[in-house]
Amino acid sequence: MYAYVRVHGISREGGIDLSKLGENASVSLGEKTELELAKQLLKVDVVLQSVGDEFLPNRICEYLFELSQKFNQFYEGCPVLSASEPQRTSRLLLCDLTARTLKLGLTLLGIPLVERM
């Protein structure tokens, strides 16, 4: 939940509507923590498929915990709002994808979301 709230804090602090970053924007993965976060984001389909196949919803919890850890490492090592373009937009896209993935997982688990703590 903290990682989800943190993304919304970035959005508020920067006055950015993450849903309007642009269709032509792309993600570049120049830093190790960016790459690790992107790899974790790409695992969501496999995790959800395994949950459906094996009836083990705890795998969503494990995945979300790991995603939150990867996001926090990314956030600590890669400035988002102070980065120059196009790196700034790329990092904002990673933040948005993280928040949307966390929202999906938490919603599937029946956990209500908050945007501020």
Strand and helix layout:
Blueprint: H1 2-14, H2 32-42, H3 44-54, H4 58-77, H5 87-108
Helix pairs in contact: 1-5, 2-4, 2-5, 3-4, 4-5
| Regions with little confidence, pLDDT below 50 for 5+ residues | none
Distance between the termini: 9 Å
The chain-level mean pLDDT equals 94
| Separate helix tally | 5
Would you give an account of this structure?
- This protein has 117 residues and is mainly α.
- It has five helices and no strands.
- Helix 1 runs antiparallel to helix 5.
- The chain is globular and about 45 Å long.
Structural features:
117 residues, mainly alpha, globular
In short:
The protein is an all-alpha fold. The chain contains 5 helices and no strands. The radius of gyration is 14 Å and the shape is globular.
